[in-house]
Design goal:
single chain, 264 residues, alpha/beta, Spore Coat Polysaccharide Biosynthesis Protein SpsA, Chain A, 7-stranded mixed sheet, 14% strand, globular, binds guanosine-5'-diphosphate, binds magnesium ion
Length: 264
């Protein structure tokens, strides 16, 4: 299979160089798939672009695009996913942060689950063996944990980590049914993940979770903001509303059909 690892960057000069080296090192151990990287940059103002171009000259399997317009993390992923699918002919796509919070040593665990027949594999912080940074203050742990719980309960998701940014999806099977355009996706920010996860589960994707060590951010600063949290809540609400509305429409249709059949 051709697996494209998408790595979004925005001002990640402190981590992206080493990270690319590490990802290349770890993926070269996986010999039963063709693995390439696709870095998508959001018009960084630091040396990120220069560093990625140097790595692109050093390694063969690095692709690099710059967002046509910086729209947010979801916008970057949607643009990169389309490039991966329709220019690079990806069968599966991995989402992997460019700030060294995801450990390249965990990549093989997700790929092994793909080999076992799973179609959507989540690198999970909230299953046994998974970790969050020890240095996180209590409020961050609380926010992350309960954010997940709200998504899980609000959307009746079977997953323990519903906001993880580290995942692998067999896109060749689902690409035509997923909202992979800026018109269809409900959020161009971090909340795009909740929308895609919700739809993959609704489409019946065989989903599993593997434990990952979510590392501390040593370099650069987080780009997630309060708006990302409020937008996530909004997306959960919209998706829930759609579910209730669709169930209502189906129920009404069945009611009308039953009445017609009874009359006949
Ligand atoms: N291309 C692109 N990358 C982004 C954008 N926003 C964030 N990123 C990258 O996405 C990854 C995750 O973002 P981060 O700020 O660490 O989110 P957090 O881990 O949820 O705090 C990092 O590698 C960022 O550099 C964006 O608008 N465009
Ligand atoms: Mg991060």
């Amino acid at each position: 299979m051709k697996i494209i690892i998408i790595i979004p960057t925005f001002n990640e000069e402190g981590s992206i160089g080493n990270l690319i080296d590490e990802v290349i090192k770890e993926t070269s151990k996986i010999t039963n798939h063709k693995i390439e990287l696709l870095i998508v940059d959001g018009k960084s103002k630091d040396n990120t672009v220069k560093i990625v171009n140097e790595k692109k000259n050093k390694y063969q399997n690095i692709n690099f695009i710059i967002e046509t317009e910086k729209k947010g993390l979801g916008g970057a992923y949607i643009e990169a996913m389309n490039h991966a699918l329709y220019v690079l002919n990806a069968d599966a796509i991995m989402e992997f942060d460019g700030d060294s919070q995801h450990d390249p040593k965990d990549i093989h665990k997700l790929v092994e689950k793909l080999d076992e027949g799973f179609e959507h594999i989540i690198g999970s912080r909230y299953i046994p063996g998974g970790t969050i940074p020890k240095t996180w203050k209590l409020w961050r742990k609380f926010l992350s944990f309960f954010g997940n719980k709200i998504a899980k309960v609000g959307l009746s998701l079977p997953t323990k980590d519903s906001t993880s940014g580290f995942k692998l999806t067999l896109m060749s099977k689902f690409k035509n049914d997923l909202p992979l355009s800026s018109e269809k996706i409900l959020s161009l920010r971090h909340a795009y993940k909740i929308h895609l996860l919700h739809d993959l589960i609704a489409l019946g994707a065989k989903t599993t979770e593997v434990p990952i060590n979510f590392l501390d951010r040593n370099k650069g600063i987080s780009k997630s903001t309060f708006e990302d949290i409020s937008e996530s809540l909004k997306i959960i609400f919209i998706l829930r509303y759609r579910k209730i509305r669709n169930a209502f429409i189906v129920k009404n249709k069945l009611g009308v059909n039953k009445k017609t059949t009874d009359r006949n």
